[in-house]
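Researcher: Structure prediction, please.
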Amino acid sequence: MALAHFPQGAAGDQFSPDNRTSTRALLLPGGGLRLSYAAGVLTEIFANDLKFQLMDGTSGGSLNLAMLLSGLHIDEICDRWRSLKMRHTISFMPLLNYLWPPQFVAASSAKGFRQKVYPHLGIDFNKIRAATGVQGSFNVCNFGKKMNQLILHQDITEDLLLAGMSLPGTLPPVTINDEVFLDSGFIQDVNLLDAVKRGANELWLIWIMGNIKQYRKNPINLYVQMLEMSANGALIKELLQIKEINARIANGETVYGHSKPITLHLIKPAHPLPLDTALYTGSTTHAKLIDMGKADARRYFDEFKGEGMPFEPEILGMV
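Model: Predicted structure follows.
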C-alpha cells in the first residue's frame, strides 16, 4: 500500500504501512463534543508507532477522522481542540422553531459548524478526498431507509460530514438529493463488522459512550441514556458476532477471508466522561479531556496484551 499523500510531518505519517502481516483498523465512534478525549488517546497510539490501513468514523468521531485525513499532525489536532471556543458550536434556528412546538426541528442550526468549527479544526474536504495510503470511511444514517450508510473518504462532503454528526433534536437533518441524513449514533456508533469484512484483523477502538448500571434522572440524562443504550447495544451485538467468527476460524473455516482470529484493542475511560454540558459551563475543558485520554491510553499500553480484549459485553462496563 502506498504511503499517504500528506505534508511532511502531518498525520499521514501514521498511515504508512509497516512490516506486519495484519491489517489494522482505527475505529473512532461518537461521544458528543467530548472527542478531544479520543485525540488524547490517539497521541499515545501514534507515539507507539501504530499504523493503520483502515480508519472509520461515526458521529463526533468523524471530526477526528476528518482532521487526520486533512493532514494534521496529532499534536496540532490536540491544540485545535484545546483552543476551540464552545460558543462557536451554537447558532440559532429561526425564531418559530423555538416559539411553536409543532415547528421545532433542532436546538441549534449547523451554521456555527460550517462557518467556524470546521475551519478552526482544520478540516479540508479537498485534502480528505485526495488522501491516499489509507482507506477512510464515514457513517451516516439514511433516514428514509432507516439504515446506516457508509461513505468512503473519497466521497465525503461538508454536507455528509455534518449529517453524520446531526443527532435528532440537536442539529437539523441534512437533505441531499431528496434524501434525509442524520447521525448514525442511534443505529450504531461504531462499525466493527464492516472493518472485518474489509480485511481488518486487528481492531483499535476508542470507546467514549457511558455504560453504568445506575439509571440517571433529568431530561439531559434521559436523552443521553437512550443514546448509550442504542450505542452499547449495537456494539455488543457486533462483539458477539465477531466472537462467533473467531470460533468458526478456530474450527478451520476461513471467514470473510480471515484464517486467523480477529483481535480487539479497546481504550476507554473507567468512569463516564462529563457530558457536553460540562464543556459549555466550563466545569471541564478539552485540555482536561485530552489529558484523561492520554492517561487511559498509557495505562492500556503499560498492561498491553497482544491477544487483545475478549469479545464480551463486560469489556464496555464503567463504574
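Model: Residues 1-12, 16-20 have pLDDT under 50 and may be disordered.
Researcher: Thanks, that helps.
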